[in-house]
Amino acid sequence: MTKKDKNDPLLLENQVCFPLYACARRVVNTYASLLKELDLTYTQYVTMMVMWEHEKISVKDLGAKLYLDSGTLTPVLKKLCALGVIRKYRDESDERVVIAEITEEGRKLREKALVIPQQICCKISNNSSGFTMDDAMQLKGLLLKLLGSVD
């Protein structure tokens, strides 16, 4: 066995992307257990968050807000339509544009989802790691900065 070079750019421990990836997986899994009650996946949940904010939005703009391509977003929207929480239709003024619009059932789902952010905060901050809400806000800012730099 050879001695490893601590400066090796391919060592897993030297990667920024790996803890980001591992953390994202764990956080999404934490959400998944809470979202079962709403019958939503994490991707469907964040899609609904945009829908609750905008009520009606073009599918193109929705994909841009979520950083999702149409191949990923299409099945998510199909499932949300099947659940009856959104509806899709072509814009009357430009048939090339597809609109997603929240339904009354989707508005009701928002009321059930209101507890999710608080439950996540409790799970994250009530552990032995000492991760605080200030840490979370600082991390969010850094992640948004990183997201902007990799576009």
From TrEMBL:
The record's annotation in SMART domains points to: HTH_MARR (SM00347)
Keyword GTP-binding (UniProt): no
* Places the protein is found: Cytoplasm
> A GO molecular function for this record?
DNA-binding transcription factor activity
Question: Its GO biological process terms?
Answer: response to stress
Identify the main location: cytoplasm
Please give an example of a GO cellular component term from this record: cytoplasm
Q: Which UniProt keywords apply?
A: Cytoplasm, DNA-binding, Transcription, Transcription regulation
Domain HTH marR-type positions: 13-148
Q: What is this protein called?
A: DNA-binding transcriptional regulator, MarR family
Q: Which organism is it from?
A: Succinivibrio dextrinosolvens
